[in-house]
């Protein structure tokens, strides 16, 4: 009971009645050695900060060092005192502590939900700074419909190029191509009527040998020599 994760996001802000009631009960049981799951030698202020999911300085600002709640105190479990408490009393005390802890957890959930809604409203209220840029499509000459290819073998890609570009042979197609080119590619081709070379849009994952092809400056086209 009352085990907390040490890496939870730390809470801040004003203290609620539920939080004050919980820290007073925890401090009382800590100083009297009645917490069975706290290791001996644990310092009170860091331990209380973990239970309340806040920074230790938040507790120090609320409660002075000379108060009964804090002070310099390391935990020591009082086994003799714990055994002397009647079972019925232990049961009631455990229920009371669990009820305080449940109320505190519910408060934390509400706090986080409120902060989430605030962030969401701020995001919605923030004006969009992005502008959509529409580029004019370049004028193409001698166009044909796009050719779709799905291949697992590079040789098939060469034959697809040949069919799409109406070449008599694949001798001018470069032979240095990335082995991972086995994927679905859209080949939207433009070309001239000159049989010596073909001007085509660059294709994803193609690695062209410098002796076989030349990249135009903008990188959008490849000239197959």
Automatic annotation (TrEMBL):
Residues 118-142 are annotated as: Disordered. It comes from the Eukaryota. Residues 133-142 have a biased composition (Basic and acidic residues). This is Uncharacterized protein.
């Amino acid at each position: 009971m009352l085990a907390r994760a040490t890496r939870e996001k730390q809470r801040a802000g004003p203290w609620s009645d539920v939080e004050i009631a919980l820290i007073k009960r925890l401090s009382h049981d800590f100083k009297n050695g009645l917490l069975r799951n706290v290791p001996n030698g644990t310092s009170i202020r860091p331990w209380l900060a973990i239970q309340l999911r806040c920074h230790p300085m938040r507790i120090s600002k609320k409660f002075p060092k000379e108060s009964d709640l804090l002070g310099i105190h390391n935990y020591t479990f009082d086994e003799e005192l714990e055994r002397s408490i009647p079972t019925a009393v232990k049961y009631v005390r455990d229920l009371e502590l669990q009820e305080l802890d449940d109320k505190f957890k519910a408060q934390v959930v509400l706090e986080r939900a409120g902060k989430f809604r605030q962030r969401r409203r701020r995001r919605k209220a923030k004006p969009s700074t992005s502008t959509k840029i529409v580029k004019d499509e370049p004028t193409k000459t001698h166009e044909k419909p796009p050719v779709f290819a799905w291949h697992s073998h590079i040789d098939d890609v060469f034959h697809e190029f040949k069919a799409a570009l109406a070449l008599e042979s694949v001798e001018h197609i470069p032979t240095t191509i990335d082995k991972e080119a086995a994927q679905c590619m859209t080949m939207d081709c433009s070309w001239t009527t000159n049989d010596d070379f073909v001007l085509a849009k660059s294709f994803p994952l193609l690695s062209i040998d410098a002796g076989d092809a030349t990249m135009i400056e903008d990188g959008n086209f490849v000239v197959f020599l």
